[in-house]
């Protein structure tokens, strides 16, 4: 919980990791390249006093995580999003099993999400069902650009992708977090293309599709899908840290999201340990829409901030929120008012 | 001896297709070496995992641009520090197609994705020019009546016309200025909707460009790029 100027904010961090990218666990040069890439994101966009050395960044401790999220980071509940990457890391980068150890110790602090890879086909589907049963999963994180042998990615609309989503529906795994990455088959197409999310959201109206980092670098495609599909949401991981380095730009992104999706479908995420919730939460609560943007993009009220920082995710994951941390207009619902059509020939 | 400046000028015509900016301005040209009539160029990108299709396009475009410099007998363009460096460097160096370079990982060439991003780039350039026109006193609904011949001389106009020509849209002075990426004129009633969507693309592209500059600076220890103005 964070409190400032008489306002109290219930904080749900929608995207945290507990990874092991130490040299001992790196299976090949891709594992090294992957964590180096994360490190550059971390070092480039964090305030100086929050930048770790590379060794700590490769593998931090349970104490680091508990301290950064809950002792100083204002987080009430954090959602573990696994990223397996077993082709890059011998024991995986950050698996459901690793996360579940912490959940066991601190059951009220964490939500553990699972994952699936439809390229595992029938056998993988059985394993996924067992995983859901074992950890009582309510959500999955899908990394469609993950490598597997010769394959460089998959799509939600692949034959087996659909079967796995049907299984999610059957088992009550209703929150589907989707992360688009830079490699996906076929490589001649745009790897960040969100068309499969659009199709899946239409086919599975009872599932929630949370597009991580609000579709960046394809914010416009994401916004357009969000307008049409009420069950598509935006996770702010990777977009959040711009609040420090480029606050005007960040305000603009939030303004765009509020315009296209409305205040009930945008969710806070730190992507810890890439960034820390402490400074993100503090800066977000302090953020005001720059004066010259207000007329077009509107004000950022405490009520909007409360929804984005925690209440929207609390609702999605059925979390109990203390009465004094709620807002009055909780159920304004998805904003599906008439929006401009995509100019012909632009959409993929 | 080939003039280095001529090589850089040639490279400045190569753009990152996603960001619609010259690779020279983005800092992607890490080194240029001239040895008589032979030229070596090393490119670098913001991350190890930058999309291989765009990376391939930039390496191939750079090679073509340098080879076209008068007097150049050989152009060796290579990409450093990328997960697909080996494939891209040997593929482009041997003049292979993208599909042949990434056998089993691609099912076609890059024309479609290039054209998609050319359309986005056009809409963004058009929106920037609209903002310039609005700042000079034009009303939003008037934008629908502006003809190409009415456009003020400015760098924004030049780039807009260049991007427009790349899409093969009508270049006649009496042709309407405000058109969709398919060339259809935008009616007065649709102007604000059209600009609203185009501005979202711009926010996306500018954010992406800012991220790329920052990551490149961190990765290679370059001076911090300035915050882009919006």
Summarize this, please?
The complex is a heterodimer of chains A (348) and B (230). Chain A is an alpha/beta fold and 348 residues long.
Care to describe what's here?
The complex is a heterodimer of chains A (348) and B (230). Chain A is of the alpha/beta class and 348 residues long. Helix content of chain A is 40%, strand content 11%. Chain A contains 13 helices and ten strands. Chain A has helices spanning 29-45, 54-58, 62-71, 96-105, 121-135, 159-171, 195-203, 219-228, 242-245, 247-260, 277-286, 291-297, 302-316, and strands spanning 2-4, 7-9, 12-16, 77-80, 110-112, 139-143, 175-179, 208-211, 232-235, 266-267. In chain A, the strands form three sheets. Chain A has a five-stranded parallel β-sheet with strand order 6-7-8-9-10. The mean pLDDT of chain A is 93. By secondary structure, chain B is mainly α. Chain B has two domains: 4-109, Fe-S cluster assembly (FSCA) (GMP Synthetase, Chain A, domain 3, 2-Layer Sandwich); 112-209, no CATH class. Chain B is 47% helix and 10% strand. Chain B has eight helices and five strands. In chain B, the strands form two sheets. Chain B has a three-stranded mixed β-sheet with strand order 3-4-5. In chain B, a hairpin with a 4-residue loop joins β1 (15-16) and β2. In chain B, α3 (52-67) packs parallel to α4 (85-93), α6 runs antiparallel to α7 (155-166) and α6 packs across α8 (191-220). The longest helix of chain B has 30 residues, at 191-220. The model of chain B has no long low-confidence stretch (mean pLDDT 94). Chains A and B meet through α1, α8 and α10 of A and α6 and α8 of B.
N to C succession of SSEs of chain B: HEEHEEHEHHHHH
Alpha-carbon distance between the two ends of chain B: 43 Å
Main beta sheet of chain A: strand number and arrangement?
5 strands, parallel
Given the structure, what is the number of helices of chain B? 8
Number of domains of chain B: 2
CATH superfamily of the largest domain in chain B: Fe-S cluster assembly (FSCA)
In the CATH classification, which architecture of the largest domain in chain B applies?
A: 2-Layer Sandwich
| Most extensive interface between two protein chains, with residue counts | A-B, 49 and 56 residues
Distance between the termini of chain A: 41 Å
Oligomeric state of the chains present here: heterodimer
Series of secondary-structure elements of chain A, N-terminal to C-terminal: EEEHHHEHEHEHEHEHEHHEHHH
Q: Percent range for helical residues of chain A?
A: 25-40%
Radius of gyration of chain A: 19 Å
């Amino acid at each position: 919980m964070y409190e400032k100027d008489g306002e109290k904010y219930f904080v749900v961090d929608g995207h945290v990791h507990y990874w092991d990218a130490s040299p001992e666990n790196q299976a090949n040069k891709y594992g090294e390249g992957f964590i180096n890439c994360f490190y550059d994101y971390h070092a480039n966009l964090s305030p100086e006093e929050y930048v770790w050395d590379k060794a700590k960044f490769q593998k931090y401790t349970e104490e680091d995580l508990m301290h950064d999220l809950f002792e100083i980071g204002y987080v009430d509940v954090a959602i573990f999003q696994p990223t397996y990457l077993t082709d890059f890391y011998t024991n995986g980068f950050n698996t459901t099993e690793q996360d579940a150890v912490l959940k066991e110790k601190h059951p009220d602090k964490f939500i553990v999400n699972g994952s699936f890879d439809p390229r595992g086909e029938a056998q993988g589907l059985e394993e996924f069902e067992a995983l859901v049963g074992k950890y009582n999963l309510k959500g999955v994180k899908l990394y469609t650009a993950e490598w597997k042998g010769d394959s460089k990615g998959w799509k939600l609309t692949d034959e087996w992708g659909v079967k796995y989503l049907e299984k999610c529906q059957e088992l009550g795994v209703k929150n589907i977090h989707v992360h688009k990455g830079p490699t996906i088959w076929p490589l001649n197409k745009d790897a960040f293309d969100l068309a499969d999310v659009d199709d899946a959201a239409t086919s599975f109206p009872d599932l929630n599709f949370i597009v991580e980092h609000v579709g960046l670098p394809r914010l416009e495609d994401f916004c357009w899908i969000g307008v049409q599909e009420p069950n598509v949401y935006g996770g702010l991981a990777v977009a959040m840290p711009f609040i420090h380095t480029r606050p005007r730009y960040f305000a603009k992104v939030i303004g765009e999201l509020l315009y296209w999706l409305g205040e009930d479908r945008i969710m806070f995420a730190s992507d810890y340990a890439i960034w820390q919730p402490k400074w993100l939460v503090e800066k977000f609560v302090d953020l005001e829409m720059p004066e010259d943007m207000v007329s077009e993009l509107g004000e950022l009220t405490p009520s909007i901030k409360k929804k984005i920082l925690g209440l929207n995710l609390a609702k999605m994951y059925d979390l109990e929120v203390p009465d004094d941390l709620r807002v009055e207009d909780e159920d304004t619902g998805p904003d599906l008012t008439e929006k401009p059509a995509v100019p012909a020939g632009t959409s993929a | 001896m080939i003039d280095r400046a001529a090589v850089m000028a040639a490279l400045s015509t190569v753009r990152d297709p996603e960001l619609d900016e010259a690779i020279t301005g983005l800092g992607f040209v890490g080194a240029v070496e001239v040895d008589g009539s032979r030229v070596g160029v090393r490119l670098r990108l913001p991350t190890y995992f930058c999309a291989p299709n765009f990376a391939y396009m930039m390496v191939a475009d750079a090679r073509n641009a340098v080879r076209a410099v008068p007097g150049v007998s050989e152009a060796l363009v290579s990409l450093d520090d990328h997960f697909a460096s080996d494939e891209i460097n040997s593929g482009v160096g041997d003049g292979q197609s993208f599909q042949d370079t990434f056998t089993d990982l691609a099912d076609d060439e890059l024309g479609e994705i290039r054209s998609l991003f050319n359309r986005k780039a056009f809409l963004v350039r058009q929106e920037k020019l609209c903002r310039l026109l609005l700042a000079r006193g034009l009303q939003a609904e008037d934008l629908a009546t502006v003809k190409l011949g009415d456009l003020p001389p400015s760098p924004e106009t030049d780039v807009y016309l260049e991007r427009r020509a790349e899409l093969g849209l009508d270049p006649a002075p009496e042709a309407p200025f405000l058109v969709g990426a398919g060339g259809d004129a935008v009616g007065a009633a649709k102007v604000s909707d059209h600009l609203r969507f185009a501005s979202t693309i711009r926010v996306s592209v500018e954010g992406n460009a800012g991220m790329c500059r920052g990551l490149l600076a961190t990765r290679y220890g370059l001076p911090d790029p300035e915050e882009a103005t919006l």
